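Sorry, explain these tokens?

___
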Amino acid sequence: MRNLSSMSEGEKPVFVRGRVPESLRVRFKATCALEGRDMGDVLKELIENWLEEKENPLPRKRSRGS
């Protein structure tokens, strides 16, 4: 089975579909291959990082005039 490290015990993997330009997919696939990484693992990591950013936004900096 693939390395899905943060998946909970008993949690089954599911497919996520989306459309991207072919050139982007080719670059993504090639870069994953060069790094010896599974595309699904990298995609999962990217989604987790994006969710972390959205679910835990950094506090806004106060402007000097506030």
Summary: The mean pLDDT is 87. The two ends are 54 Å apart (CA to CA).
